[in-house]
Each structure stands twice: as C-alpha cells, then as structure tokens.
Amino acid sequence: MKGQEWYQTAEVAEEYDTKRFSDGGRLIDEREKEAVLSAVGPVDDKRVLEIACGTGRFTTMLAQRGADIVGLDISPAMLQEGRKKARAAGVDDHLEFMRGDAARLPFPDDHFETVIAMRFFHLADTPASFLAELRRVARKQVVFDTFRRFSTRSIYNWLLPMGSRLYARAEIEELLDGAGLQLAGEEHDFFFPYGLYRQLPDAMATRVRELDDVIMDSPIGEYVASVSYWDARLQEE
C-alpha cells in the first residue's frame, strides 16, 4: 500500500479528521456517509467489516445504527483515535477495532454480510488481490469507492504527496468480475476534487458544492464525476 509509513504516524492520526473533514471537508464526510448508508441499507444486527477504518468514521456511525461491526486498520494510532470516537459516541461496548492487514484478513470465509472499504482503493498497489480478499470474507456485499480517471481528480492528482490510483469504469468491471462480484448499484459525485473542498472555508465550500450539484445533476454528471461509490454483490452461481 502507498504511504503506509506516513499513514501510521501518531501526528497524522491525531490531525486526520480535522485536516480532512472540517470546514469544506465536512461536505465530503457527509456525502461519503450518505453513500455508505444508501448502499448497505438497514444494519441492525448485521455483521459488518470495515477495512482501512482509520479513525472510525463509518465504523462508529454504523455501530450507532445497530450493526455488529469490526473496524480493521494497519495503523495503531488511527485505531486509538477510532476508540476515542466510539467512546464519545457511547458505542465502544458493542464494536471492535483491531489491527490487521487487508491483504490477509484474519477471518473465515463468508464471515460478514457486508464489507466496506472507503478511501482504500486509491492507495492499493494490487487492487485485484485486495478485492478478492474482501470478497472472500463477505457473504453478500462489498461496498467501496474509487477516484475516477478522466476527471478533475487526474489534474489534481499530481499535487498529492503519495498520489492516488485512478480507475476507469472498465477497470472496475474487470476487477469485480475477477473477484466473483457483480455490480448492484453505483453513485458518482464531485466534479471538483476533494482537495479543493478541504482548502475552502465552510461558507465558500457550500457555494462551490451548489455549483457541483448542478453539474452532477446534468446529463454529463456521471461522465465528469471524480468519485464513484460501488455496491457489489456476490455473483449468482
């Protein structure tokens, strides 16, 4: 995975949410959570795994909705922040954070109804093998996001210190088929890249988001989106 050493430092973990999801970044956080909830539906008593859970944004949110959820991450510092967030939300007694490698998940086959991987595949050096491992432990569903090739993200990408892997739709379809998954739902959003929103104060970011929504609601929206949310299900035999 790209950027593993950077990602695991305590300094990055402590500032992660503030730098990415405050001010204009709040709009990204809200949209990503909306996309996850739309894909997974009701989660009460559903066994869920989130890989690369980071500070537990989605893990805690789904635990609050009744999911039986495990958040797995390679960074102890990120997991510590996740535990703080779960305690603050009052759900630390019915979720689990654990350290682990997404390439070798420590769970048996078909162990979870749903597996979630947000903000993961843009850093995956071998996406096919990672997706196959997610599918192995999923009994029904794998939900993940990717950054889109041929979008404003490709212009912004070179500015990032780690870079990001970008995907065309054909690549996603090939990856899903290779992992024994089929596409059940998809959403595409954000003409303007995430990095722009993070640089803007809340009021200005809200105005940019209004313009973004107009573009995304137009006939060209799907084709110029910088982010895609994929809802994949196991292929029927």
Automatic annotation (TrEMBL):
Residue intervals passing through the bilayer: none
Gene3D superfamilies: Vaccinia Virus protein VP39
Keywords: Methyltransferase, Transferase
An MF annotation (GO) of this entry: methyltransferase activity
Listed InterPro entries: Methyltransf_25 (IPR041698), SAM-dependent_MTases_sf (IPR029063)
Occurrences of domain Methyltransferase (ranges): 48-140
Any Pfam family the entry gives: Methyltransf_25
Classification via CDD domains: AdoMet_MTases
Swiss-Prot/TrEMBL GO biological process terms: methylation
Coiled coil: none
Recorded superkingdom: Archaea
The name this protein goes by in its record: Methyltransferase type 11
Organism field: Halococcus morrhuae DSM 1307
The organism's taxonomic lineage, starting at the top: Archaea, Methanobacteriati, Methanobacteriota, Stenosarchaea group, Halobacteria
